[in-house]
Batch of 4 targets.
Target 1
Amino acid sequence: MNDILLKTLDGQLVERPPVWLMRQAGRILPQYRAVRSNMKSFKDLVKNPVKAAEVTIQPVDELGVDAAILFSDILVIPEAMGLDYNLVEKKGPMFPTTIQSWDDIAALIDGEEAALKLEYVYNAITETKDQLNDRVPLIGFTGAPWTLFCYMLEGEGSKTFSKARRFLYQHPEWSHKLLQKISATVAEYLKIQIEKGVDCVQIFDSWAGCLGTQQYHEFGLKYIRWILEQLPENTRTIVFSKGAHASMEELLDLPCKALGFDWQIEAEYIASQVNGQKVVQGNLDPCVLYADNEEIVRSTQRLLSVFKGGHIVNLGHGVYPDTPLSGVKKFVDEVKSFRY
Ligand code: 1CP
């Protein structure tokens, strides 16, 4: 197996850093769009283990990345808890009903009962591990409680997440109850993913940055910490809290192996703060990949030069859907030809 990702997470020496891209499965590959266009909907694809495995492996074949990330979505969790979603073409996810009241929260199922509804995800893991045949590790993932809370309150993406944030002020106790139920589900969900064979797990807190630090500690990080504490010892864990730089100290204190960072914070600053306490994942601006080859090489080399190890090369957020494949390949190839 190409195990440089796992070695890096385990603190072992490698000759170059591993590279993969958040949102590498789907979106950018013509092969993905071909599979997708033959399925009725996004959800049909997510719920079809053979097809999900196929699109999970496409970026490994096409881009030569050092890890696969399971093709699924963070929104399968609210669905398993009882909040159905649809994916509206060109608009994104929409929940026909949202959480409004204590009764809505009480009606949600949670923990193991909810996690067991995600059988199709576990089957996709088994199928992917089979098809991958140990070429590269498989990353499992979940949304963080706060980010899932955002969708369950807003019903869709948002620029301000003001419905979700307002709920924290108006109903702090209800908010904690909902975050507890989400966390109990996420912990069981990750435990089963690990049992089924994922080699590491990433927690995506995509909307961490819309909270102030005090609120992020109380309603965000507290629950991420609790989830991490439920996982088997030595689980390889990556926490990506987008926009949460102001909580650096608290992030460093989490019981995880790696922290993902977005591009709005300088790599040098990250390296100086982290100082070997965690593996660092990131943090090239996804927009660099629209630039010409010279700029892609320059920016990638600059990023590579900052870390002397303990680094997983990635973008600072998911690759954008219209990114030219040539730019993505230049970036991956540049990392793969680098040596410490
Ligand atoms: O038909 C399609 O192709 C729909 C587009 C799509 C895809 C390919 C959605 C809808 N989800 C996914 C897959 C997905 N989502 C993966 C696995 C495959 C991959 O590598 O792309 C992963 C890891 C996610 C995670 C995800 N979903 C996050 C966290 C990461 C991030 O980018 O911040 C979030 C916030 C979502 C919600 C979601 N699902 C889909 C969309 C368009 C969105 C974002 C909506 C918004 O901006 O609020």
Note: The longest helix spans residues 172-196.
Target 2
Amino acid sequence: MRVLLLGGTSEARELAALLVAKSVEVTSSLAGRVTRPRLPVGAVRIGGFGGVPGLRAALADYDLVVDATHPFAEGMSANAEAACRAERVPLLRLERPGWEPMPQWRYVEGHEEAARLAADLGRRPFLTVGRQELGRFLPSLRERPVLARMVERPDLSLPHGWTLVTSRGPYLLADEMRLMRDHAIDVLVTKDSGGSYTWPKLEAAAILGVAVIVVRRPAAPAGLAVVHTAQDASAWVRAQSRCRCLPNAELSE
Ligand code: NAP
């Protein structure tokens, strides 16, 4: 059973470790967005496939696909669904749950709406939305003293009044509180990424009384098998392997 694991997340690395430990042949795929990615154990390939046609061609080398990309990696998930459907390759979505909402959080449908609301709710925003989304905040927040945090520097040039912090989670509550206090942050913008790595900023915001704006997740492709933990995904892969190994007579029993 050859598994293609679409990754770039902590759950994908966890799943790769579980599958390698069970001697499953797994190849993790990374987009190649960051210069020093955290690498999973096992085989790794890096870079896009070339849209749905490229992914369909690549699927000739695999029996199963697990899409464990980030909840906001909408394009890759849509391509995986289309390519696997066309090639009749079983596909599982491994997606960490969103955060349990706090009553004071404000949810928005997109980044432009988040930018406008941030301009209304506070004077000193803290943007934690990733570098690919930053440009969408410029029209509303260009003149504000924004603190923007991301893994690597963005390609676009930022306004003079903006402060850039490059770092990668997991983060600690005490550090998040210090950062927000040092920059007198009064509004935090985040995607509903879920997980524990970046949760402390939300705890810090609650303690400091900082307003929170949460960008809702894009809708997942309909009709997919979905699990929320690497353990469940590993069990699915092994169940698929067993199905394929059993002779037809045993399967029909
Ligand atoms: P995206 O917009 O959904 O994908 C755009 C294109 O990047 C895809 O069509 C594909 O190119 C390529 N790609 C994306 N993920 C890939 C993967 N795992 N392996 C090979 N190619 C991939 O993706 P994104 O939001 O930029 O995210 C890129 C990567 O960063 C993903 O692996 C994701 O798990 C990780 N990540 C994303 C976020 C986020 O907030 N979006 C946060 C943390 C980590 P082709 O069409 O050429 O195949």
Note: The radius of gyration is 20 Å.
Target 3
Amino acid sequence: MAKKISNAKVVVDKDYVISEIDKRIYGSFIEHLGRAVYGGIYEPGHPTADENGFRKDVLELVKELQVPIVRYPGGNMVSAYNWEDGVGPRGNRPRRLELAWRVIETNEMGTNEFMDWSKLADTEVMMAVNLGTRGIDAARNFIEYCNHPSGTYWSDLRREHGYEDPHCIKTWCLGNEMDGPWQVGHKTADEYGRLAAETAKALRLVDPNIELVSCGSSNSDMPAFPEWEATTLSHTYEHVDYISLHQYYGNHENDTANYLAKSLDMDEFIKTVISTCDYVKAKKRSKKKIHLSFDEWNVWFHSNEQDKQIDPWIVAPPQLEDIYTFEDALLVGSMLNTMLKHSDRVKIACMAQLVNVIAPIMTENGGDVWKQTIFYPYYYSSVYGRGVALNPIVTSPKYDSKDFTDVPYLDISVVYNEEKEELVIFAVNRHLENQLHVDVDIRSFEGFEVVEHVVLENEDAKAKNTLGREQVQPHSNGQSYKEAGKVIGILPKFSWNMIRLQKNN
Ligand code: AHR
């Protein structure tokens, strides 16, 4: 049967610049939750474990992803966490009831070990403080412990614990999802705004070089969104640098066309948060611009039911272990595109999470590692999506779905890396039936030729990867080519693509 074809057009120009991309847009997240830490990044006794107990097989994959920043230690968990429990001699560390996920936290891993791990993973750390059960005092002691060089109680305690040099952690989150009634120490917008502003002031007095993230809404469906942002920022505006966004999607209704359109919701969410920040800016007659930290995003729904069966108060149970499908990888690709399209305001983003817990990397306790379907769009975007985001002018056929109208079949972002003389197109063809022929006018990129067209495609929307059986893997046999100064991108039906061009010297 002949292939069904749809056509789209794109104009790309060096001058249509959105922004320099902050590499931290490819960040991720490790929470003390499920097997992210214990059995994920840390498993003493594992055949690949180093002298610290860090799994080298996991580290290899994290390094492959080139993750620039990792948020830690939570998440919901941070809202009842005593950072002091996780430092000092391991033998003295308390086992605690961890209330967010109702497990036992052994505190074998803590701040210093995570900083060690981050060095090996070649990544920066984004540290969260507890503004649920605790407040200014614990937070200021914590930053003194981490960032002050020496000569004070907390900094000398760090040195006593074997860390002579300060960790110099630059990015700090002022709590987590404080608008959520599920959060231990949940607060009203005014309560949180005041506490966050005062904590921010104290943290900056200890270390003026830090950057701070104020909690935005837990997702765009929260009843108080975006009033939460407006009210909290009315307190924190001059004291913070970023406001956080969190969003997870799922395909509960098994409606693939509608599911793939959910990145439009993400786009709307980002635009609303930008407008709200700018509204507060105008109200305050401020000169300062608040940026966005999309520090939790992903697909999360597959494991919802199985998690209800897990007994409480055990150590590192397999919580939130979504096994991702092929269609999830396409939505993840579009979510990454959405972030790139807003890279003028979204400066940090964290795929939540990194290992075992709603993650691109999975492990077996004592066994092997494997890559989920979502690993691939994340990998290619992180490795090749560095430089400047360009604004492609797109003409695409569209469709309507249950919740969305005018959904372009073509979802595209474009990155220009001047240093490498490389132009990279990330594109999702949302059409479930038709191949998409995309005519890309690259008028200002004379001499650029297609060097690679990577495709992630599969006949089965629900195809999954499991240990030893990776059904969803990219190939480099994409059919794009150059013709009369244009790139003709041939995007297979229902696929994620990366078309990479380089200057022919
Ligand atoms: O990433 C899993 C959880 O999702 C985080 O702990 C919380 O911040 C969010 O609700």
Note: Residues 31, 74-76, 176-177, 218, 246, 296, 352-353 surround alpha-L-arabinofuranose (CB under 6 Å).
Target 4
Amino acid sequence: MRLSKFMSYALRHQPQKFGLEPDAYGFVRVPNLLTVLRDRYGDLETSDLERAVQDCPKRRFEIRGEKIRARYGHSVDVMLDAQPCRPPELLFHGTSPAMKDSILEEGIKPMKRKYVHLSKTTEEAFQVGGRRSKNPVVFAVKAEEAHGKGIKFYDMGLVVLTAEVPARFVRFADE
Ligand code: HQG
């Protein structure tokens, strides 16, 4: 598993398994994470970790002082201390066609994660859906309208988070 993928796994889903003790905001100490990473990847320095963080266009991780965390994607409890944003008219969600009917019926749910993850472009959503299917479907979320009805969105860069998207704000992207 490549470094960034393993870091995502440990920080988002299984910190306890590796003896990492995240604070309420999901931060673990950099030296502790380095110890875990050295077990698998050999002699890594803090600078290698910093490079992994900086080289990621999706900005998966954040280093603050001596601590590091995943910025999104968690299944473990986390407080992200992100400010709600005013979203664009439309955001997008790419997924497998197998989820289509269920999403149209019950909306987009966070499933195992703490938040629903949305994309800013159909291209990005298509890539996200491509993790699950060769023929992903892309939904458009009427984000501005949902925001007007009190639903909160959090802009994390390429990814926008929200708690859940009710079905009335979801349609196919190409309709
Ligand atoms: C689906 C990666 C049936 C949903 C990605 C998705 C993203 C439903 C799956 C980020 C449903 C959950 C998150 C419903 C949602 N019925 N299926 N009502 N509501 N689903 O992995 O958005 O590269 O938790 O469509 O690129 O695929 O790791 O969410 O297929 O940005 O940084 O349930 O993770 O980012 O799957 O991915 P996931 P996701 P990284």
Note: The mean pLDDT is 96.
